Amino acid sequence: MCQLKLTSVTRTRLTRLSAAMSVVLALTYTGGAMADDFYKGKMLSIVVGATPGGAFDVISRSMSRFIGKYLPGRPNVVVQNMPGAGSLTSLTYIESVAPTDGTVIGTFLPGIITQSVVAPERIRANLSNISWVGVVSADYSRVCYGFGPNGVKSWDDLMARQKDQPFIMGTTGTGASNYINGSSLREVFGANVRIILGFPGSSELRLAVERGELEGDCGGMASIPPNWIQGGRAHVFVRFGEKLMPGIPPSAIYVGDLAKTEDERQLLDLLYSADKLGRPYVAPGRVAPERLNLLRVGFNDTMRDAGFIAEMEKLQETIYPLTGQEAESVIAKMRNARPEIVKKARQIYE
User: Fold this and answer.
1) Does residue 128 have a pLDDT over 90?
2) Which of 62, 113, 296, 337 is most exposed, with the fewest beta carbons within 10 Å of its own?
3) At CB < 8 A and 24+ separation, what contacts does 244-249 make?
4) Of 271, 290, 305, which marks where a domain is finished?
5) pLDDT at 304 (0 to 100)
Protein backbone atom coordinates (compact mmCIF):
# COMPACT_ATOMS: atom_id res chain seq x y z
CA MET A 1 0.00 0.00 0.00
CA CYS A 2 1.26 3.52 -0.80
CA GLN A 3 2.18 5.32 2.40
CA LEU A 4 1.35 9.01 2.79
CA LYS A 5 4.67 10.57 3.78
CA LEU A 6 4.37 13.87 5.62
CA THR A 7 7.48 15.69 4.43
CA SER A 8 8.99 18.54 6.41
CA VAL A 9 7.28 20.95 4.01
CA THR A 10 3.91 19.29 4.57
CA ARG A 11 4.40 19.26 8.33
CA THR A 12 5.25 22.96 8.24
CA ARG A 13 2.11 23.71 6.26
CA LEU A 14 -0.07 21.73 8.66
CA THR A 15 1.48 23.62 11.57
CA ARG A 16 0.69 26.89 9.84
CA LEU A 17 -2.85 25.67 9.24
CA SER A 18 -3.20 24.93 12.94
CA ALA A 19 -2.04 28.43 13.84
CA ALA A 20 -4.35 30.00 11.28
CA MET A 21 -7.20 27.87 12.55
CA SER A 22 -6.67 29.13 16.11
CA VAL A 23 -6.92 32.75 14.94
CA VAL A 24 -10.04 32.05 12.89
CA LEU A 25 -11.60 30.16 15.80
CA ALA A 26 -11.22 33.20 17.99
CA LEU A 27 -12.95 35.31 15.36
CA THR A 28 -15.67 32.72 14.78
CA TYR A 29 -16.83 32.15 18.30
CA THR A 30 -17.14 35.78 19.27
CA GLY A 31 -20.62 35.33 17.82
CA GLY A 32 -21.60 33.19 20.81
CA ALA A 33 -24.46 30.71 20.80
CA MET A 34 -25.67 31.60 17.30
CA ALA A 35 -22.40 30.29 15.83
CA ASP A 36 -22.44 27.26 18.11
CA ASP A 37 -25.71 25.85 16.82
CA PHE A 38 -26.10 27.29 13.32
CA TYR A 39 -25.60 23.98 11.47
CA LYS A 40 -27.71 21.93 13.87
CA GLY A 41 -30.38 20.11 11.84
CA LYS A 42 -29.06 21.54 8.57
CA MET A 43 -27.33 19.96 5.59
CA LEU A 44 -24.06 21.05 4.00
CA SER A 45 -23.85 20.41 0.25
CA ILE A 46 -20.53 19.95 -1.55
CA VAL A 47 -21.05 20.68 -5.24
CA VAL A 48 -18.53 18.92 -7.49
CA GLY A 49 -17.99 20.26 -11.00
CA ALA A 50 -17.08 16.85 -12.41
CA THR A 51 -18.57 13.43 -13.00
CA PRO A 52 -18.49 10.64 -10.37
CA GLY A 53 -15.32 8.59 -10.08
CA GLY A 54 -12.72 11.26 -10.80
CA ALA A 55 -10.28 12.79 -8.33
CA PHE A 56 -12.45 15.81 -7.49
CA ASP A 57 -15.42 13.56 -6.79
CA VAL A 58 -13.68 10.97 -4.61
CA ILE A 59 -11.81 13.63 -2.59
CA SER A 60 -15.07 15.48 -1.97
CA ARG A 61 -16.83 12.30 -0.89
CA SER A 62 -13.99 11.54 1.49
CA MET A 63 -14.12 15.06 2.90
CA SER A 64 -17.90 14.79 3.33
CA ARG A 65 -17.37 12.02 5.88
CA PHE A 66 -15.28 14.24 8.16
CA ILE A 67 -15.98 17.94 7.77
CA GLY A 68 -19.41 17.77 9.44
CA LYS A 69 -17.95 16.98 12.85
CA TYR A 70 -15.86 20.15 12.69
CA LEU A 71 -18.82 22.44 12.08
CA PRO A 72 -20.96 23.63 15.03
CA GLY A 73 -24.17 21.60 15.12
CA ARG A 74 -22.57 18.72 13.16
CA PRO A 75 -24.65 18.93 9.95
CA ASN A 76 -25.20 16.07 7.55
CA VAL A 77 -23.02 16.47 4.46
CA VAL A 78 -23.97 15.42 0.93
CA VAL A 79 -22.08 15.52 -2.37
CA GLN A 80 -23.82 16.74 -5.52
CA ASN A 81 -22.20 16.25 -8.92
CA MET A 82 -22.76 19.13 -11.31
CA PRO A 83 -20.52 18.55 -14.35
CA GLY A 84 -20.63 20.58 -17.53
CA ALA A 85 -18.63 23.14 -19.53
CA GLY A 86 -15.35 22.16 -17.94
CA SER A 87 -16.90 22.63 -14.45
CA LEU A 88 -18.16 26.14 -15.25
CA THR A 89 -21.71 24.91 -14.65
CA SER A 90 -20.96 24.21 -10.99
CA LEU A 91 -18.93 27.38 -10.51
CA THR A 92 -21.69 29.52 -12.00
CA TYR A 93 -24.16 27.87 -9.65
CA ILE A 94 -22.00 28.63 -6.61
CA GLU A 95 -21.26 32.18 -7.74
CA SER A 96 -24.80 33.27 -8.60
CA VAL A 97 -27.49 30.74 -7.62
CA ALA A 98 -26.49 28.73 -4.52
CA PRO A 99 -27.80 29.65 -1.07
CA THR A 100 -25.58 32.20 0.65
CA ASP A 101 -26.13 31.07 4.23
CA GLY A 102 -23.03 28.86 4.41
CA THR A 103 -24.77 25.59 3.55
CA VAL A 104 -23.13 25.16 0.12
CA ILE A 105 -19.50 24.88 -0.88
CA GLY A 106 -18.07 23.53 -4.09
CA THR A 107 -15.02 22.53 -6.08
CA PHE A 108 -14.13 23.14 -9.71
CA LEU A 109 -11.29 22.65 -12.16
CA PRO A 110 -8.56 25.20 -11.33
CA GLY A 111 -7.77 25.96 -14.97
CA ILE A 112 -10.78 28.27 -14.83
CA ILE A 113 -8.79 30.47 -12.45
CA THR A 114 -6.15 31.13 -15.08
CA GLN A 115 -8.83 31.72 -17.70
CA SER A 116 -10.55 34.26 -15.44
CA VAL A 117 -7.34 36.30 -15.38
CA VAL A 118 -6.25 36.11 -19.03
CA ALA A 119 -9.61 35.77 -20.84
CA PRO A 120 -12.41 36.67 -18.39
CA GLU A 121 -14.94 37.31 -21.16
CA ARG A 122 -14.84 33.60 -22.04
CA ILE A 123 -16.31 32.42 -18.73
CA ARG A 124 -19.76 33.05 -17.35
CA ALA A 125 -18.73 33.10 -13.70
CA ASN A 126 -17.12 36.01 -11.87
CA LEU A 127 -14.45 34.74 -9.48
CA SER A 128 -14.69 38.01 -7.57
CA ASN A 129 -18.06 36.72 -6.37
CA ILE A 130 -16.72 33.63 -4.60
CA SER A 131 -15.05 33.17 -1.22
CA TRP A 132 -12.14 30.79 -0.75
CA VAL A 133 -12.66 28.12 1.89
CA GLY A 134 -9.38 26.28 1.34
CA VAL A 135 -7.36 24.00 -0.91
CA VAL A 136 -6.81 20.29 -0.22
CA SER A 137 -3.63 20.05 -2.23
CA ALA A 138 -1.45 22.14 -4.46
CA ASP A 139 -1.12 20.20 -7.69
CA TYR A 140 2.66 20.01 -8.02
CA SER A 141 2.58 16.55 -9.55
CA ARG A 142 1.11 17.46 -12.95
CA VAL A 143 2.64 15.65 -15.90
CA CYS A 144 1.88 14.74 -19.50
CA TYR A 145 2.14 11.17 -20.71
CA GLY A 146 1.85 9.18 -23.90
CA PHE A 147 0.09 5.83 -23.98
CA GLY A 148 0.82 2.58 -25.77
CA PRO A 149 3.84 1.07 -27.50
CA ASN A 150 3.73 3.54 -30.37
CA GLY A 151 2.88 6.61 -28.30
CA VAL A 152 5.00 9.57 -27.22
CA LYS A 153 7.67 8.37 -24.80
CA SER A 154 9.85 11.47 -24.43
CA TRP A 155 9.95 15.21 -25.06
CA ASP A 156 11.99 14.58 -28.19
CA ASP A 157 9.30 12.18 -29.43
CA LEU A 158 6.67 14.90 -29.00
CA MET A 159 8.71 17.57 -30.76
CA ALA A 160 9.47 15.18 -33.65
CA ARG A 161 5.77 14.77 -34.47
CA GLN A 162 5.06 15.86 -38.05
CA LYS A 163 2.23 18.19 -39.04
CA ASP A 164 -0.05 15.28 -39.95
CA GLN A 165 0.77 13.37 -36.73
CA PRO A 166 -0.44 15.48 -33.79
CA PHE A 167 -0.37 14.24 -30.23
CA ILE A 168 -4.12 13.87 -29.55
CA MET A 169 -5.49 14.42 -26.06
CA GLY A 170 -8.89 15.33 -24.69
CA THR A 171 -10.40 17.62 -22.07
CA THR A 172 -13.68 18.64 -20.49
CA GLY A 173 -13.27 22.26 -21.54
CA THR A 174 -10.93 25.24 -21.78
CA GLY A 175 -11.16 25.73 -18.01
CA ALA A 176 -9.53 22.37 -17.32
CA SER A 177 -5.91 22.20 -16.20
CA ASN A 178 -5.04 19.57 -18.81
CA TYR A 179 -6.26 21.95 -21.52
CA ILE A 180 -3.85 24.60 -20.27
CA ASN A 181 -1.05 22.04 -20.00
CA GLY A 182 -1.49 20.79 -23.54
CA SER A 183 -2.13 24.21 -25.05
CA SER A 184 0.93 25.71 -23.38
CA LEU A 185 3.14 23.04 -24.93
CA ARG A 186 1.69 23.98 -28.30
CA GLU A 187 1.72 27.79 -27.93
CA VAL A 188 4.96 28.29 -26.01
CA PHE A 189 7.12 25.55 -27.50
CA GLY A 190 5.45 24.80 -30.83
CA ALA A 191 4.60 21.19 -29.96
CA ASN A 192 2.15 19.52 -32.34
CA VAL A 193 -0.72 18.97 -29.87
CA ARG A 194 -4.40 18.60 -30.76
CA ILE A 195 -6.98 18.81 -27.98
CA ILE A 196 -10.52 17.42 -28.31
CA LEU A 197 -13.06 19.24 -26.15
CA GLY A 198 -16.26 17.99 -24.55
CA PHE A 199 -15.40 14.94 -22.44
CA PRO A 200 -17.68 14.69 -19.36
CA GLY A 201 -14.88 13.94 -16.88
CA SER A 202 -11.59 12.24 -16.10
CA SER A 203 -13.08 8.75 -16.00
CA GLU A 204 -14.30 9.10 -19.58
CA LEU A 205 -10.94 10.51 -20.65
CA ARG A 206 -9.09 7.49 -19.24
CA LEU A 207 -11.42 5.12 -21.08
CA ALA A 208 -10.79 6.98 -24.34
CA VAL A 209 -7.03 6.72 -23.79
CA GLU A 210 -7.27 3.02 -23.08
CA ARG A 211 -9.37 2.44 -26.21
CA GLY A 212 -6.81 4.27 -28.33
CA GLU A 213 -9.10 7.19 -29.16
CA LEU A 214 -6.65 9.52 -27.43
CA GLU A 215 -2.87 9.23 -27.38
CA GLY A 216 -2.36 10.35 -23.81
CA ASP A 217 -3.25 13.10 -21.38
CA CYS A 218 -1.95 15.64 -18.88
CA GLY A 219 -2.89 15.46 -15.20
CA GLY A 220 -1.75 14.67 -11.69
CA MET A 221 0.62 11.72 -11.46
CA ALA A 222 -1.83 9.97 -9.13
CA SER A 223 -4.55 10.18 -11.79
CA ILE A 224 -2.65 7.76 -14.05
CA PRO A 225 -3.78 4.20 -13.28
CA PRO A 226 -0.90 2.42 -11.49
CA ASN A 227 -1.18 -0.62 -13.76
CA TRP A 228 -0.51 1.62 -16.77
CA ILE A 229 2.76 2.73 -15.20
CA GLN A 230 3.73 -0.71 -13.92
CA GLY A 231 2.87 -2.34 -17.24
CA GLY A 232 4.91 0.15 -19.23
CA ARG A 233 1.88 1.46 -21.11
CA ALA A 234 1.97 5.08 -19.87
CA HIS A 235 5.13 7.09 -20.59
CA VAL A 236 5.54 10.32 -18.60
CA PHE A 237 7.58 12.76 -20.69
CA VAL A 238 7.19 16.22 -19.11
CA ARG A 239 6.33 17.63 -15.69
CA PHE A 240 5.03 21.06 -14.61
CA GLY A 241 6.40 21.22 -11.05
CA GLU A 242 10.01 22.22 -10.53
CA LYS A 243 10.48 19.71 -7.71
CA LEU A 244 10.56 16.07 -8.78
CA MET A 245 7.65 14.71 -6.75
CA PRO A 246 7.54 11.07 -5.57
CA GLY A 247 6.47 8.67 -8.32
CA ILE A 248 7.42 10.92 -11.24
CA PRO A 249 10.24 9.37 -13.29
CA PRO A 250 13.44 11.43 -13.55
CA SER A 251 13.12 11.21 -17.34
CA ALA A 252 10.14 13.60 -17.19
CA ILE A 253 11.71 16.92 -18.15
CA TYR A 254 10.69 20.04 -16.18
CA VAL A 255 8.84 22.43 -18.46
CA GLY A 256 10.57 25.43 -16.89
CA ASP A 257 13.93 24.12 -18.06
CA LEU A 258 12.67 24.39 -21.62
CA ALA A 259 12.05 28.15 -21.37
CA LYS A 260 14.57 30.19 -23.33
CA THR A 261 13.66 33.74 -22.24
CA GLU A 262 12.51 35.57 -19.10
CA ASP A 263 9.17 36.30 -20.79
CA GLU A 264 8.66 32.58 -21.41
CA ARG A 265 9.41 31.85 -17.75
CA GLN A 266 6.95 34.51 -16.56
CA LEU A 267 4.34 33.21 -19.01
CA LEU A 268 4.71 29.66 -17.70
CA ASP A 269 4.52 30.95 -14.13
CA LEU A 270 1.21 32.69 -14.85
CA LEU A 271 -0.21 29.68 -16.68
CA TYR A 272 0.69 27.28 -13.88
CA SER A 273 0.06 29.44 -10.81
CA ALA A 274 -3.38 27.87 -10.56
CA ASP A 275 -1.68 24.52 -9.90
CA LYS A 276 -1.08 25.86 -6.38
CA LEU A 277 -4.87 25.77 -6.06
CA GLY A 278 -5.16 22.25 -7.46
CA ARG A 279 -8.07 21.01 -5.32
CA PRO A 280 -9.97 24.22 -4.42
CA TYR A 281 -13.11 24.62 -2.30
CA VAL A 282 -15.13 27.81 -2.40
CA ALA A 283 -18.37 29.30 -1.12
CA PRO A 284 -20.64 32.00 -2.55
CA GLY A 285 -19.09 35.42 -2.11
CA ARG A 286 -22.11 36.74 -0.26
CA VAL A 287 -21.72 34.30 2.63
CA ALA A 288 -21.48 36.32 5.85
CA PRO A 289 -17.92 36.60 7.24
CA GLU A 290 -18.76 34.67 10.42
CA ARG A 291 -20.19 31.77 8.38
CA LEU A 292 -17.17 31.78 6.07
CA ASN A 293 -14.97 31.59 9.16
CA LEU A 294 -16.91 28.55 10.35
CA LEU A 295 -16.38 26.83 7.00
CA ARG A 296 -12.68 27.69 6.94
CA VAL A 297 -12.15 26.36 10.46
CA GLY A 298 -14.02 23.16 9.61
CA PHE A 299 -12.00 22.73 6.43
CA ASN A 300 -8.67 23.34 8.18
CA ASP A 301 -9.54 20.83 10.91
CA THR A 302 -10.54 18.26 8.30
CA MET A 303 -7.14 18.55 6.62
CA ARG A 304 -5.57 17.50 9.96
CA ASP A 305 -8.01 14.67 10.71
CA ALA A 306 -6.27 11.28 10.94
CA GLY A 307 -9.19 9.50 9.28
CA PHE A 308 -9.25 11.88 6.35
CA ILE A 309 -5.48 11.61 5.95
CA ALA A 310 -5.78 7.80 5.92
CA GLU A 311 -8.46 7.91 3.22
CA MET A 312 -6.36 10.26 1.11
CA GLU A 313 -3.46 7.84 1.46
CA LYS A 314 -5.61 5.06 0.01
CA LEU A 315 -6.53 7.37 -2.87
CA GLN A 316 -2.84 8.13 -3.40
CA GLU A 317 -3.69 11.83 -3.12
CA THR A 318 -1.15 14.01 -1.34
CA ILE A 319 -2.42 16.50 1.23
CA TYR A 320 -0.66 19.84 0.73
CA PRO A 321 -3.28 22.25 2.04
CA LEU A 322 -3.71 25.99 1.72
CA THR A 323 -5.98 28.14 3.85
CA GLY A 324 -8.62 30.31 2.24
CA GLN A 325 -6.48 33.37 2.94
CA GLU A 326 -3.45 31.79 1.24
CA ALA A 327 -5.55 30.96 -1.81
CA GLU A 328 -6.65 34.59 -2.03
CA SER A 329 -2.98 35.65 -2.05
CA VAL A 330 -2.24 33.37 -5.02
CA ILE A 331 -5.12 34.92 -6.97
CA ALA A 332 -3.93 38.43 -6.17
CA LYS A 333 -0.43 37.66 -7.50
CA MET A 334 -1.86 36.26 -10.74
CA ARG A 335 -3.91 39.41 -11.26
CA ASN A 336 -0.77 41.52 -10.91
CA ALA A 337 0.97 39.85 -13.87
CA ARG A 338 2.45 42.19 -16.49
CA PRO A 339 -0.07 43.12 -19.23
CA GLU A 340 2.20 41.84 -22.00
CA ILE A 341 2.46 38.45 -20.27
CA VAL A 342 -1.33 38.30 -19.86
CA LYS A 343 -1.69 39.12 -23.55
CA LYS A 344 0.55 36.22 -24.51
CA ALA A 345 -1.35 33.89 -22.18
CA ARG A 346 -4.60 34.80 -23.96
CA GLN A 347 -3.35 32.98 -27.04
CA ILE A 348 -4.01 29.73 -25.19
CA TYR A 349 -7.75 30.43 -25.51
CA GLU A 350 -7.87 31.91 -29.02
Assistant:
1) no
2) 337
3) 245/140, 245/141, 245/221, 245/318, 246/5, 247/141, 247/221, 247/222, 248/141, 248/143, 248/221
4) 271
5) 97
